[in-house]
Amino acid sequence: MSKEIKKTQLYFDRNIEVGEVDKRIYSSFIEHLGRAVYEGIYQPGSKFADEDGLRKDTLDLIREIDVPCVRYPGGNFVSDFHWEDSVGPVDKRPHRIEPAWGVIETNEFGMHEFMNWAKKANTQTMYAINLGTRGIEDAKNVVEYANIKGGTYYSDMRRKNGAEDPFNIKLWCLGNEMDGPWQMGHKTAEEYARTATEAGKLMRLLDPSIELVACGSSNMQMPTFGKWESTVLEEGYDTFDYLSLHTYYGNQANNTPDFLASSVNMDNFISAVISICDYVKAIKRSNKKINLSFDEWNVWYHSNEQDKKLEKWVEHPHQLEDIYNFEDALLVGSMLITLLRHADRVKVACLAQLVNVIAPIMTSDTGAWRQTIFYPYMQASRFGRGVVLNTVVKCDTYESVHGDAPFIDSVVLKDEENKTLTIFAVNKDLENDFELSADLRQFEGCKVAEHILLTHDDVKAINTEENPNNVIPVTCSNSKIDGGHLTSVLPSKSWNVIRLTY
Ligand code: AHR
Fold it and tell me: Is 113 a catalytic residue?
């Protein structure tokens, strides 16, 4: 097929804003799963460990991304977790059978260790409670332990365990994927709605400043999707601040155009959940708006077959260790753009996960390295701050399993304080380059600061421990401004960050 340059036009207006980016849209997730905690962020005895046993090489990469908040400790793990097991003298902490992932949890790393790590990683914590095998009393106790100053049973226990000051955790997940039959303590929508509402009310009686995330659906294909959301919100509308969404995509069919169109499905999912939130708002005649926490999203499928062969009841095996290729990085870029385009309602989003387990960062005994998906995530987090402008992308579309998909995904952000405009764009066309044009005359004196490009001839190209720089971004001179008009060449199969100053 011959290569042609196709055209795409971006339309936006300096004053027509979607909303301010809540930096927590670039959050991530560490679960007690596989080698995320043990060997990922914590490995006493390793040459990379600091005085607390925390891996410095991993911390460096996390700080490079600038991760604003990390969800912890699960995931499916949390639904049978006893938080008390994870505090106090390490030699007294019980080793537990961990049914969610078929392993043994030693509890050597627990709440205090995580909070110490989070401080070093310069990140906030989103703490998930167990609403599977436990209930509202434990929900109350863990808030007392973490957030009450002192003078009570659990707050004094925390002080005795070495943390004089409260942890002041502000963001709490009311369970995890409670709609999923695989979840320990899985509930019907009605059961979950009652438990989560009462747990949330009690938690907030202890600390009125906390924010609460109720479980939405584990993905849009769940048979209970829609009804689950409306039932949960009708019960707990006044108690919850956010409703969660989770989704993972895979290219099992080895059809790259369909796979890259998955962001269309994500976009539909977000729009549908917003509609349900607003439907409940309307029937309640409420002035309150429920926002979205997309607290698990990523590509996940490469490790599925390998994980079926794992031995059971061992400690931190190599689990969910997807090695990401270049097309995964393109989709992650498109998913980030999709989240940003909904910045008015998506306030929290967690790339699941952060280290070793379906993660942008991998570790081994020789160090930590960046997977392909590291780059769009890191660049969006570093450069995608400010206000999202309502961005209309005119370009050709193609048919996919998810419906009509545009060849170009894009969004524009402005940062009036730093006088910058940032354009993120993915070209999903496997053959053709696109010339992107935009009218910048509203931004007088606008100049190209840099155009960063991530591209590769082979969509299956990967980074490995031995060859960590196979897929890496480069700066290029593909963008020009002439008479206030921007033209940028977006090569076929590429993630682009176009940074402008005015
Ligand atoms: O992130 C891996 C798992 O995916 C989480 O534990 C669970 O919440 C989801 O199903």
Answer: no
Token pair for residue 1?
A: 């097929």
Average pLDDT across the chain, whole number? 97
Report field, pTM of the whole predicted structure over 0.90: yes
| Shared-domain flag, residues 347 and 420 | no
State the distance from the centre of ligand 1 to the C-alpha of 176, rounded, in angstroms: 8
**Residue spans of beta strands (DSSP E) within 291-360:** 291-299, 346-352
Exposed, middle or buried by CB within 10 Å (0-12, 13-18, 19+), for 83?
Answer: buried
Say if residue 3's pLDDT is above 70.
no
User: What pLDDT was estimated at residue 187?
Assistant: 98
The pLDDT-based confidence of 4 (bands split at 50, 70, 90) is confident
The full length of the chain comes to: 502
Tell me which residue of 443, 405, 403, 404 sits closest to 423, measured CA to CA.
443
Give me the CATH number covering residue 411. 2.60.40.1180
How far is residue 126 CA from its own chain's centroid?
Answer: 12
Q: Among positive and negative, which fits the CA dihedral 318, 320, 324, 329? A: negative
Among candidate residues 383, 402, 427, the one where a domain is terminated: 383
Q: Residue 417, Cα to own-chain centre: how many angstroms?
A: 26
- Bridge pairing between strands 291-299 and 242-249: parallel
Q: Which domain holds residue 411?
A: 5-14+390-501
Q: Which of 177, 229, 235, 327 is catalytic?
A: 177
Distance in angstroms (rounded) separating the CA atoms of residues 502 and 500: 7
Q: Which ligand 1 atom minimizes the distance to the CA of 358? A: 1
Q: How far is the CA of 75 from the centre of ligand 1 (A)?
A: 5
Nearest protein Cα to ligand 1, atom 5: 75
Positive or negative: CA dihedral 157, 162, 168, 172? negative
417 annotated active-site: no
